[in-house]
Each structure stands twice: as structure tokens, then as C-alpha cells.
Design goal:
This protein is an alpha+beta fold. The protein has 2 domains: 62 residues, no CATH class; 68 residues, PUA domain (Archaeosine Trna-guanine Transglycosylase, Chain: A, domain 4). Helix content is 28%, strand content 30%. The protein contains 4 helices and 9 strands; from the N terminus they run H-E-E-E-E-H-E-H-E-E-E-E-H. The chain has a 5-stranded mixed sheet. Strands 1-2-3-4 form a 4-stranded antiparallel sheet. The protein is globular, with a radius of gyration of 15 Å. The chain starts with a helix and ends with a helix.
């Protein structure tokens, strides 16, 4: 599955209705860009990276968050654990608009998106979080 297909799949799973024209997206080295001219490299906004599952950029995560109703809010402890790559347990969930077995946007107490996870058995299984950027940066040193 290419990065465009992964992007569409994650938007579909989250129930997000974006105004993005997929034909305008360009994949460069596993990264998906919007507003990019064919001959220029790395001009435009990186909207995410191809992987086992599409990993949206922070900007894209915010855009998807505004367009989906499938959300879970965490308390401060849950936010910390989730951004460290851990799952969020029942006691860390303060509010939810998701049903069982749904892919959800995970938000902190301030309505800021901090990642994506699967809401199952009353907890959120971490699929991707904003701490991933820091962990990846550390691995590349």
C-alpha cells in the first residue's frame, strides 16, 4: 500500500472528511507532501510518512482531529504515558465519543491532538503518538 492509500485509509477509519485532493499529493522517500510542485523536492507541507500504518504529521493530525468525531480525551498522567508510546487505560480516559473497536484521535485536556489509537476494551491502544518524533530523532543521532 502506498502512502496516498495509507493516508486515505487512516482518514476513512477515523471518519474524517478532509477537503484534500489526493491527486495533488506527492510521495517522496516515503513522506507524503501536499502543495508540492513536481520538479521541486521538499517544497510544500509534509503531511505524513508511510509505514506499517500511515503516520500523519502534527499538522495533519490537527486537521484530521477537527474533521472527526471519533475522539478520546486523556488526563495529564494518561497524556504523559501515551506520548511515551504506552497505551491509555480506563482510569486515564476523561471523556470519549468513540465506540468499541474504533480508530480514534487521542486528545489531551487542552483539546490538543497527541496521537491515534484503537479504542478497545475500554482502553486506547497506542498506534501513533507525537512523542514518536522525539524518539525517532534520538535514534538517528
Amino acid at each position: 500500500m502506498n502512502a496516498k492509500q495509507q493516508f486515505l485509509e487512516i482518514c476513512k477509519l477515523l471518519g474524517a472528511k478532509l477537503q484534500q485532493d489526493v491527486s495533488e499529493l506527492i510521495e517522496v522517500n516515503g513522506r507524503l507532501f501536499s502543495n508540492m510542485k513536481e520538479k521541486n523536492v521538499y517544497e510544500g507541507k509534509c503531511i505524513g510518512m508511510k509505514g506499517r500504518m500511515f503516520r500523519p504529521s502534527i499538522l495533519t493530525l490537527e486537521q484530521i482531529s477537527e474533521k472527526t468525531a471519533q475522539k478520546v480525551w486523556l488526563n495529564a498522567k494518561g497524556e504523559f504515558l501515551f506520548t511515551c508510546g504506552r497505551d491509555a487505560w480506563k482510569e486515564n480516559i476523561t471523556r470519549k465519543t468513540a465506540r468499541e473497536q474504533q480508530l480514534v484521535i487521542v486528545l489531551n485536556q487542552h483539546e490538543e491532538p497527541i496521537g491515534i489509537g484503537w479504542y478497545r476494551n475500554g482502553k486506547v491502544e497506542n498506534e501513533y503518538d507525537i512523542g514518536d518524533y522525539l524518539r525517532r530523532e534520538r535514534r538517528n543521532r
